[in-house]
Specification:
Layout: H1 2-13, H2 16-39, H3 47-54, H4 64-82, H5 86-92, H6 96-130, H7 141-166, H8 170-190, H9 200-203, H10 207-212, H11 234-258
Helix pairs in contact: 1-6, 2-3, 2-4, 2-6, 4-6, 4-7, 4-8, 6-7, 7-8, 7-11
């Protein structure tokens, strides 16, 4: 197992894309915190401001860092198939379960460290602008930040599973972008049309939207005239996203063990 971990760590740290993706993710996330600080520097720091700054914009539907880290998850398997290195990898490490566990361990631990570093940098921006960070460990902000970390890990798990399932990069990238940004938003939008009200019960089961609930400060208010979606609570919604990630990973893992490569 240690050999598999060393192998995967070496693979991850020798890819230039790893540093580019982490760097861009941290840059964009920090950029959001800086923009918030510049825009609201003359106002008292509030929970909402802290929330947006610390998660780098993920709170209002732009999970920049999660997307970049999910691409690293996709590359963990997708690159091996794209460049034909999966066969020599399996020759060196024929125990497929160990290989997948090692890849998951390295990718998820890297994601956890990068997420915490990003939050620390953004917190430093908050302290630089306002000199304080009130309510950091109190609800609802504290719970939201824990949810953000869980959300990041699950998002990357989905990316990893898609890369392994499709045995490549392009198809996995299409799904990781298309599903949360277009398909789920389209379903939610169409559900507001009276003739398509049968879509209303579906909205509460949309996985990426449920995942986003992990880092919300409060239940969303869709305004008057909007259907009653009867959305799940924070952790129940997170469970739906986790189940979605688990199904993708389980399917990919099973096929990986049955396929020739």
């Amino acid at each position: 197992m240690l050999d598999a971990l060393r192998f995967e760590w070496k693979r991850l740290t020798t890819l230039r894309s790893t540093y580019w993706l982490i760097g861009m993710g941290l840059l964009v996330s920090t950029g959001v915190a800086v923009l918030v600080g510049v825009a609201a520097r003359n106002e008292p720091v509030s929970t909402d401001i802290m929330w947006i700054a610390l998660n780098g914009g993920a709170g209002f539907g732009l999970p920049f860092l999660a997307v970049f880290m999910a691409i690293i998850g996709i590359f963990a398997c997708g690159h091996e198939y794209r460049h034909g290195t999966i066969q020599p990898t399996l020759t060196s490490l024929p125990q497929r379960n160990r290989l997948i566990v090692a890849k998951l361990a390295v990718v998820l631990s890297t994601t956890l460290v990068v997420t915490l570093v990003s939050m620390a940098i953004n917190l430093a921006v908050v302290y630089t602008v306002w000199g304080e960070a009130p309510g950091l460990f109190e609800d609802p902000l504290g719970t939201s930040l824990i949810g953000y970390v869980v959300y990041m890990l699950l998002y990357v798990l989905v990316g990893f599973g898609l890369g392994l399932l499709f045995r490549g990069v392009p198809s996995a990238l299409v799904v990781i972008f298309l599903m949360p940004l277009i398909i789920e938003n389209m379903i939610a939008g169409l559900s507001t049309i009276p003739q398509l009200d049968w879509l209303v019960p579906v909205v509460k089961f949309l996985p990426f939207s449920d995942g986003a609930r992990l880092l919300e400060l409060s239940a969303p208010d869709f305004g008057p005239g909007t259907p009653d979606y009867d959305l799940f609570s924070r952790w129940t919604a997170g469970g739906v996203f986790a189940l979605f990630a688990a199904l993708i990973l389980a399917s990919a893992w099973t096929l990986f063990k049955k396929r020739d490569a």
